[in-house]
Amino acid sequence: MPDKKKKIALVVQRYGVEVNGGAEFHARILAEKLAQKYEVEILTSTAINHHGWENHYQPGESFINEIKVRRFPTFAENKRKTRAARRAIFKKKKYFKILKFLGIFKKADQLFNLSEVTEKNVDVWLLGQGPYVPDLVDFISANKESYDVFIFFTYLYYPTVVGMPLVAEKSIFIPTAHDEPILYTKPYENLFSVPKFIMYNTESEKQLVENNFRNITQNSEVAGVGISSFHGEKAQLPAEIIPNKYFIYIGRIESAKGCDLVIHHFLEFQKKYPKYREFKLVLVGKNHMKKNYRNSSIIFAGFVTEEEKHAYLTNALAMIMPSFYESLSMVTLEAMVEKKLVIVNGNCDVLKSHVQRSGVGKSYTTKEEFFQALQFYIEQSETEREIEAEIAQNYVLENYSWKSVLQKFDDAIEFVTKS
């Protein structure tokens, strides 16, 4: 009689083919790969958007690519209370400025512990940060014996911080941690000691956590995610998009990803170098920017299908990733495996590491370096571009194969279930 398949619950803040987010896409493709060997279920919210977490999908059970998805409704929290809690955990309450101006903050803090972050501050912050899905947490608590392993995605959100301690001895944690201010606040100070096993995306992420937190779970591995070349039928490009006459960004279009700054730099580049005005910047993904950019050099393609995304990608001159905070950046690796050169924000260690380790691509930390990178790839010969592109592809194929990644997850699942 064959062994019964191990049952895995993958807990993630949002899930769906339409969901636009790196960690969420990572969760979906990992789930689909693991489902070839294990019985996988998704535990998630009904939200499609992380701005406000409004209910979009119907709660209850459904199937996506033959995987069972259990959705739980989100509940909105008081925004005013959330803002106050945020100021508390960052130790930036409004009246602190006045006390500092008067020169009495330090003495007052010593006497009255003004900057102490309370458990109530933490609780209010987590509910507001969301997605607040109390029914999901209750389900984990009531059904923890029904699953062999729980895989939690993303350190930042309520389902992980509140749900993972309930099944700590059965948990694998994929933190997707970035070097960002919120990581170092009280809600997350003990989170890395909770899981049975931590699966990091990169060595940079592992070092970030180990250098900044105590009592970390020592059972860990660096797996990342498998990246494969696209084998589907590529879509037709819109008529106004001319191959090799544009740079591309793919992902959530928002200030937090550096999109406003890269647009500003690109427009300044064209002012400084008018001869390059024929080149465009195409942004693919859902637009969350508040400012409207009415300029013929900036094209917002919107949310597109996989076939359309790869058509845009393969015809671009290079891909730009301006984000300050990444734990892996799957889209950067996808570009490289498709033989696209990348221009990345050098202030992000993970992105900079991809460029340094591969030996190709450009990183920038200043506007001038960004200009130089654009100019370099515009002026590069076709032969030089092909040589670089081959190196980029080989880097991904050698370091991010599904065979290697899945073996590491097999070992982690075996460890969690046997120990």
UniProtKB/TrEMBL annotation:
InterPro entries: Glyco_trans_1, Glycosyltransferase_grp1. CDD domains: GT4_PimA-like (cd03801). It comes from the Bacteria. SUPFAM superfamilies: UDP-Glycosyltransferase/glycogen phosphorylase. Residues 244-388 form the Glycosyl transferase family domain. PANTHER family: SULFOQUINOVOSYL TRANSFERASE SQD2. This is Glycosyl transferase family 1 domain-containing protein. It comes from Kaistella solincola. The lineage of its organism: Bacteria, Pseudomonadati, Bacteroidota, Flavobacteriia, Flavobacteriales.
